[in-house]
Amino acid sequence: MTKPTLIALEDITLIFRRGWPSRERVEAVAGVSLAIPEGGILALVGETGSGKTTLGKLVAGLYRPTRGRVLFRGQDLWTMDRRAFLEYRRAVQLVHQDAFAALNPVRTIYQSLQAPLTRHRIVQNGREARERAAELLEQVGLTPPELFLDKYPHQLSGGQRQRVLLARALTVQPRLIVADEPVSMIDVSLRLSILQLLRELNRRLGIAILYITHDLATARYLAEEGQLAVMYLGKIVEHGAFHKVLENPRHPYLQALLSAVPVPDPRVARAIHPMTLQEMDPPDPRRPPSGCRFHPRCPYVQPICREIPPALEGPADHQVACHFAQEIPSWHPPSAASRSPWA
Amino acid sequence: MSAFLIDLLSALRGNRRAAVGGLILTGYLLMALIGPELIPLDPTMRYAERFRPPSLAHPLGTDYAGRDVLAQIVHGSRDVLAIAALTALFTTTLAVGIGALAGYSGGMVDAFLMLLTNIQLTVPAVPVYLLIGSVFQVRDPVGFAALISLWMWGPLARAVRSQILSLKEREFIEAARVLGLGTAHILLRELFPNLTPFVVIHFIRIMRDAITASVGLIFLGLAPFSPTNWGTMLNLAVFQTGAIYIPNALHYVIAPMAVIVLFQLGAIFFAHGLDEILNPRLRAAA
Amino acid sequence: MKPLLQVRDLRVTFDLGRHGRLTAVDGVSFDLARGEFVALVGESGSGKSTTALALIRLVPPPGFISGGRLLWWEDEGPVDLLRLSASQMRERRWRDIAMIFQGAQNALNPVMRIAEQMIETVRAHHSMPRGEILERAARCLRMVRLEPSRVLRAYPHELSGGMRQRVLIAMSLLMNPRLLILDEPTTALDVITQAHILEILREIQEQLGLTMLLLTHDLAVVAKTARRVLIMYAGQIVEEAPTEALFEAPYHPYTRGLLQAMPTLRGDLAGKRPIPGAPPDLRHPPPGCRFHPRCPYASEICRQLEPALEEAGGRRVACHHWQQVAQEVLAPEPYG
Predict the structure, then answer these.
(1) What values do phi and psi take at A280, rounded to 5?
(2) Does A106 contact B282 at a Cβ distance shorter than 8 Å?
């Protein structure tokens, strides 16, 4: 049974114009289409400059697409009336990467939680607001809540602040949380606790998650049963059911990424060499290459790649944007006798 | 808020400059509030006592009509400080309003408001005061304060606009928008509290500027006003009684000047000290 | 192997005024042999960055080195770096020991071309003719897979983050140092760039035979590069082992916890879990073993007595229960 679509991006393009008068255009997102089902998890993987954060903000309604539509339960976000948009604001929340910057430094945790509760009339008075805020803090693992309610952001640790962001997102009872690199600024040993929390929220409360990251391993932890979309320079290059895509990556960029992910096993790690790319460095997003945007770095480049941008093709659960998706060799990690139980 | 004030007071104790400045300003506040009750003003003219040097009976000497200078200073402080405080209040409100609106709205609104601000910054104040003063008669502290504040909000408006521009793009403002918190809330409950220390420091500066402006205008005889105002005293001393030419009368000229300078110093120290305390605290990360 | 740097009982304290005092590095001892690639692993609050800064005596105030010896082996014999005068130490910096700081990609002077910056760096230690310096610079740039003709003329902002990092590595090699310290050299970089830089580091180390000390919080990075690993927690070294041995069988519960907390692309995810709790506040470290509040093996003795770093078959570990941990690892149990 397929769940209904919560958010759909239809051929979204977003172009930033810098400065005024400006000559500089950056096409941060180019022709992206995605669908997130109710209660689903989609991992959006890409590196800096890929446009993944911008896409997240598009979903959160912070940017208006230059072309294309963002549909919330079938309705176009930017043509709906005020009331419907306010409903949307409650349904989709954003959790930032930098929890310190995402909290008002001169407001206590309670005040930051109370604002949306009051604004959306979820509570009737101060007492209820405090109760509800405490409940939310408990839900995200900050117990006892009284210890945190009256503190300022700078008095909390990084992990605690990140949990506060989640609690704040939960105040409006969202149906989708856009989590932009929620654990990249947190210690390695503590990351899973935040990811486990997200997983809990998804399983128990049915909240869909758009998990934006550059780290394929944490993406796998969270979204293994969900979807994976790989972005490169504003375009989606591979997309489908996570485990399927991971088992058989077809796009050279994804293969290069996979070969570059460090493996915590010395034998395997030394056996893997990152796939040789023609150009080691990512290109300038202001001047994207012609045709297939990956062509200057692609080890399998052919003349057609420089001319014609490939479209996403394939079955719904595994699509690839590459002219030679079926011809290029498969990539598998060396299953070198891994002695390590951790790898 | 209360936590903020408590931290502030304890931090003040540590910073010598702020403490000294604070002490001076408190002294003035007390002088303005209860001074006139403690030291009576005797308006009787005793020309036999004119320009007496400082003594036990008259700590700051006497003026051209034999009246006690200290009493005049103390009584004059009420009006002066009232005008300064009111001007700072009006100016700050105007400046924050204009600056925030310009910074947050951007576009045409911003361009227009900045045009007004630039005009205010470039056209000299005194001629404007004269012009407006000649049309609207200024009779009381409130009116006077309103007049002065009309041409004083420029620098703070610009500074507020800058702050808002930089804060506007911060993640917590983005989060507020995604939470559907609305423009009014974002301006008043999210952005403004971040401006508080900044505004407080400017408030003190504006008080200083207001004193200079008001005393200056009265000194130049451009605003008719009460006889005990420091500016009036200076005016009388310099223009009416030629006290600057009479060596014995030096104290009469210097007293109001000194009292103004001391206030400015107190304000500067306090504001600088406050700046030192507030800024690093706000930037503190865990 | 011949020793290069022997750290004995290093102690670094921070004086925070009315907030108290904290000892960020508490009695750390280890050896670096010539031509070794060693990794120093630790998360926030572990003290690893402070340790590295102490090795070149650049601990910023309010921190100061409060104890220990740094025995630096020169041809004539060992020299205690902590006893040298400031100018003697300055001579050795960059010439003998080079360091690339965290986030250093932004340390390049934005208004000077790369060539000029490299010339300046060398001239600070050696008066060498321009031509010679540029030759050296070109060689170092090629070692990090950069094209000298393109890079030397460029300004920093014209280069990508990965390229800037490589320029810094090249600059650190200019004087032919015997020890190169890198603090989180790949943290802000993309995965692909990171993988290439790690390869480059390994190559350089093998080719030039210099000693490298790599600081990181990511154990996976270690697996690829280092021969030996030091694990730091709360200002102390808790485990030291050859890389392969460490991954096969960690002896310290913290190391075990770190490995268990890292999700991977292929392995089983069911056993992955975070380490409960959080690193301690070093102003008031817990009594006994600093890790005990978060340790599933903790017992009464752990709460009372700080475990010493003891030898254990070619390795070192600071844990009262290391044998138990070592045995259990072969059949990893759920953590906590």
Answers:
(1) -75, -30
(2) yes
Q: Are strands A176-180 and A208-213 parallel, antiparallel or unpaired?
A: parallel
Of B32, B88, B29, the C-alpha closest to B208 is B88
Q: Is the ipTM value over 0.85, yes or no?
A: yes
Write the CA distances from C82 to B226, C55, C88, C314, integer angstroms: 73, 9, 10, 29
Domains detected in chain A: 5-39+47-99+219-320 (3.40.50.300)
Q: How many C-beta atoms lie closer than 10 Å to residue C250's C-beta? A: 28
Span A302-326, pLDDT tens digits: 999 999 999 999 998 999 999 998 8
Using the 8-state DSSP alphabet, how is residue A151 labeled? -
Alpha carbons B48 and B70: distance in angstroms, whole number: 18
Tell me which of A30-39, A225-234, A289-298, B44-53 is least confident: B44-53
Q: How many domains does chain B have?
A: 1
Contact with chain B for residue A4, Cβ under 8 A: no
C252 SS3 class:
coil
- pLDDT given at position B8: 67
8 Å CB contact of C192 and A273: no
**Which sign does the torsion angle of CA C168, C169, C172, C175 carry?**
negative
User: What DSSP string describes B73-86?
Assistant: HHHHHHHHHHHHHH
Domain of residue B184: give its range. 17-32+62-281
**Chain C hits for A189, Cβ within 8 Å:** 43, 257-258, 261, 274-275
Dihedrals φ, ψ of C180, to 5°? -120, 125
Distance CA C183, CA C99 (A): 8
**pLDDT in the model for residue B286:** 29
Q: What's the confidence (pLDDT) of residue A38?
A: 93
Q: Which residue(s) pair with A232 in the sheet?
A: A235
Compare CB distances from C265 to A214, A220, A269 and report the shortest one's residue: A220
Minimal Cα–Cα distance from C25 to chain A, Å?
Answer: 19
pLDDT of residue A151: 92
CB contact under 8 A, A120 and B180: yes
- Residue B6: CB atoms within 10 A of its CB come to 10
Does the reported pTM lie above 0.95?
Answer: no
Supply the pLDDT for residue B281. 52
CATH of the domain at B260: 1.10.3720.10
Contacts of A281 in chain C (CB under 8 A): 160, 162-163, 193
> Over 70: is that where the pLDDT of B7 sits?
no
Please state, in angstroms and rounded to a whole number, the distance separating the CA atoms of residues B179 and B192: 18
Contact C247 A266 (CB under 8 A): yes
Please state, in angstroms and rounded to a whole number, the distance separating the CA atoms of residues B181 and A115.
Answer: 8
Q: Is A102 on the interface with B (CB under 8 A)?
A: yes
Residue B197 lies in a domain: yes
Q: How far off is chain A from C44, nearest CA to CA, in Å?
A: 7
> Using alpha carbons only, how large is chain A's radius of gyration in Å?
21
CA nearest neighbour of A55 among A318, A331, A239? A239
Instruction: Report the residue from C190, C248, C263 with minimal CB separation from A218.
Output: C263
Contact (CB<8Å) A103/B282: no
- Chains within contact range of chain C (3+ C-beta pairs < 8 Å): A
Among B153-167, C25-39, C75-89, C251-265, whose mean pLDDT is lowest? Answer: C75-89
Question: With contact defined as beta carbons under 8 Å apart, do B17 and B272 qualify?
Answer: yes
Residue A141 sits at the vertex; the CA angle it makes with A136 and A145, to the nearest 5 degrees, is 60
Where along chain C do its domains lie?
3-226, 233-329
Q: How confident is the model at residue C336 (pLDDT cuts 50, 70, 90)?
A: very low
- Which listed CATH number (3.30.479.10, 3.40.50.300, 1.10.10.60, 3.30.1380.20) goes with C3-226? 3.40.50.300
Chain B residue with CA closest to A61: the answer is B178
Residue of C nearest to A277 (CA): C192
CB within 8 Å: C265 and A269? no
Classify B42 as helix, strand or coil: coil
